[in-house]
Amino acid sequence: MDKGMSKSSKKGVILGQGGELHQQTVNTEETLTTQQGVPVADDQNSLRAGPRGPTLLEDQVMREKIFHFDHERIPERVVHARGYGAHGYFETYESLTDLTCADIFQRKGERTPVFVRFSTVAGNKGSADLPRDVRGFAVKFYTKEGNWDLVGNNIPVFFIQDAIKFPDLVHAAKQEPDRGFPQAQTAHDNFWDFISLTPESMNMIMWTMSDRAIPRSFRFMEGFGVHTFRFVNGGGKSTFVKFHWKPKQGLQSVVWNEALKINGADPDFHRRDLWDAITMGDYPEWELGLQVFDEIFAEKFDFDVLDATKIIPEEEIPVKVVGRLVLDRVVDNFFAETEQVAFCTQNIVPGIDHSDDPLLQGRNFSYLDTQLKRLGSPNFTHIPVNAPKCPMHHFQQDGHMAMHNPKGRANYEPNSWGKEGGPRENPVKGFISYGASVNGPKTRARSETFADHYSQARQFYISQTPIEQKHIGDALMFELSKVEREEIRERVVSHLLNIDDELAKRVARGLGLDKLPKPADAAKPTQKNLPASDKLSIIKNGPKNFKGRKIGILMTDGAAADIFSEVEKVAKSEGALVEVVAPQIGGVKNSKGKKISAGQKIDGGPSVLYDAVVILTSKEGAANLAGFPPAKDFVSDAFAHCKFIGFVEDAKMLLEAAGIAEKVDEGCVLIEDTKSANNFIKRCREVRFWEREKNFS
Ligand code: HEM
């Protein structure tokens, strides 16, 4: 023990003479060292000339520590900066030899390790999880023949058709450059100015204004490869393919007012949800689906399959399910894995190839280029999360932070070093690009087959349920109400007139436009005969049960013990979680005097954090909470967000104070016994009681 230090009652804990705490190794703890491995005796005090004197430059321990800290940050991704990753595996359901020689699709039942990163697009790294935004859905498959990255989104189309417009799109969407805000939202002039001058974005705008852009969780959203890719089989035959991820948990989104509140209550809502589900063993799963088609279909399809602003409706080409993705392991270290992972559309494997989609072609350049800047060296493939799990042999060498360097004398080929000469080409297994014929004059021209900007936007809109259509209108009104320049608002409405008259009129009314503008000049008239596609609606593809969802039970002292155990029991048998929200974090004593611990204190656990709620108070508890705004909001928000609400007779006073006692509807279930608790859970399977929203003005 140093001079001036005194022992505390805890073994290995010493107080310094300035009162600072020193935790020292006793038995099994490892010794703290510098990066050079030198043991450190005192991590609380820098080296000084006397206890009150200046710190000495000589202090290599402090300098090393601060030097490293000073360089902890790397540039965030230029887009998709905020994300969350997890490990898992992909399991192949059947051999697809006839379609592709990609090794991952050859053997039924084979499991391939994967790393997945979900993200928002526009917000900075520290933004919240629930802005209205596209979500990234990037999957790295560590196949036996190299890494295949399927870098997709939760929306199957994109804003632009040509990668040359990507910098403009992203500049317009992110914070405005003079003021540095608003961040993580598109509700501002620059974004809508750009969009209103870019009619090819209209299909994507319908999707981003829909509830797809405010998913309940990463677990409850679809993923799409977006572009048309190619499969190539062992005989060199190619077919076109589009990739889909279908969540086994079913689709689910939140409502906009809820999203706004979640961002405040828990900005990490989505990452926490994924972390919790995986650590509790409720592994999320998606099935990989393919839409496979040939040149003949591509020729006769109304739209160009190389145009990333278009889908192929599932009714035209059904999605064939070929495998499942299971996420079963959280990261050990967020920075090492989620931050350093580098997905790249150019990472494809034998049997998979690019198409001529001009957006995809530009992406193939952009990702590698940006990652060199972001990760600081061409050796980012040496970082474990990026390194293939199959053998690698090449002559690439040196560079910053080179971790794996080839051995031996030969670092070039051809060479004449025989066995020691290193790896050789393999024309049998090696990647061979599909030999598509390419010709045509060099030109900066866009194909006329890309010119229909409205027909599929309309098709998406008419495929939605009335509630979903209403949400699209509401979202447009919200976003445009934040736009300061009226001519931009008008220009957007002029595009909506080419999509759906009623939608355009409703938005115009909502914005208070004095008169309707003329419809925008359309390069091609809208085809109004495209049929509705049920697969495009979230509500029509919702969950079949309440598994993986969370019920918030607002409880007070004296709450009925039997009802609590009933709700807990039925929720458990459904695979749903319950969390108690109480006036104090210490929990409550139920009617039998048993202590029930709380997951949240009422003002930290608003109902927006739950998929359904139960108001389980005693009479006295309800009376106390009736005067407490966070408790009233808990109930009234759950009602306004169309959630199923279970309640007990004793909670009536709180319901009254929240203003819903008179409005109790079929989405509010009185829980008195096993039967009604079961009934409540059954209702919850519909996720929301949308009927209620019809009564909101
Ligand atoms: C179909 C259209 C697109 C989709 C589905 C898409 C998807 C994604 C996803 C999921 C990420 C995040 C990857 C991660 O989690 O690390 C990402 C990042 C990125 N995307 Fe895209 N993107 C699209 C279009 C584009 C285009 C056209 C460009 C550029 C020409 C581009 C450039 C980038 C860049 C530079 C990053 C950051 C990559 C990094 O720093 O690692 N994207 N994109």
TrEMBL record:
Region (Disordered): 1-55
Co-factor requirement: heme
GO biological process: hydrogen peroxide catabolic process; response to oxidative stress
Listed InterPro entries: Catalase (IPR018028), Catalase_AS (IPR024708), Catalase_clade2 (IPR024712), Catalase_clade2_helical (IPR043156), Catalase_core (IPR011614), Catalase_haem_BS (IPR002226), Catalase_immune_responsive (IPR010582), Catalase_large_C (IPR041399)
Pfam families: Catalase, Catalase-rel, Catalase_C
Keyword Metal-binding among record annotations: yes
GO (cellular component) term, any one: cytosol
Active-site positions on this chain: H80, N153
Enzyme class: oxidoreductase
EC id: 1.11.1.6
One of the record's GO molecular function terms: catalase activity
UniProt record similarity statement: Belongs to the catalase family. HPII subfamily.
Protein name: Catalase
Organism: Nitrosococcus watsoni (strain C-113)
Top-level taxonomy: Bacteria, Pseudomonadati, Pseudomonadota, Gammaproteobacteria, Chromatiales
